[in-house]
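Quick one: structure tokens for this chain, please?
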Amino acid sequence: MAKKVLIAKPFYQKFSPTGYRMLQEKGYEIVSTELDRDYFLDELIPLVGDIDGCIANCEPWGEEALSAAPKLKILARYGTGMNSVDTEAVRRHGVMCTNCPGINANPVAEHVMAMLLGALRDLPNLSDSTKKGLWKTGIFRELTGATVGIVGFGFIGQLVAKKLMGFDCRVLAYDIAPNQEAAEKTGVTFTGFEELLAHSDFIILLVPLVPDTFEMINSETLRITKPGAVFVSDARGEVVDEAAMYEALVSGQVSYFATDVFVHEPATPENTPLLTLPNVIATPHNGAETYENGERCGILTAQQIIDALEGREPAHRQV
């Protein structure tokens, strides 16, 4: 009987045609999501009873889903973050789990730059008012000469710093494992977290979601932040206490918040009040979504599935 693979990543076949073809050529039975979002748990469970592998996006892989998938051998995460996977439960069930470290760094870094520049010039509101015929001009700050703080200096943070070099700004970084060699190449100065908040005009959040980063941006740390700072986040939603950020945006302590990630996804004005504010740029967790990255992640995740199902050790195994 052919092995069965669930593709839970939306639009995988469209944007990862090579990866899809690799799975087809192995003769696997492929079930692809028809949704344009992640599965909810009650949608996922009926699909996993006889699958051998899954190309996972951000659907919830915890005890309940894993218990419903007794044949599952591998979860290949189409991305880097592992917060949608209960790694202890995966380990208990003897399921391999892989990811794609660093592969999406450039598209996310480009997305960060787009959000930063869009917030700096209030592009969404300017565009909206101009289209309405209001011709409302404004005055803004420049990136040149400003201080930018990068919280999390991994693959993405290093690329953001590299892209910032052309803007002649001062770049600070905070990371629990500072990469001095990468910092020297991009003119970055490592500093403490609180010092970065106090001195940065623009603050970019790029940390993974772990216990130490949960709500690291909260009412206390926002009070330390330089008044009028701009925040950009392509981390995970839970890194920011959204209620505290809302209050800081209303009071003016933070002038703008641009984010690709939310505590509740899909985010709506009902579950995420931040979306009701004019000084928020919100995108639907798609910072990594480019044609080029789609192919790269598709090929890697397909090969990880193939290797695991053929008895080989897959690349970038996390569990």
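The first strand starts at residue 4 and ends at 7.
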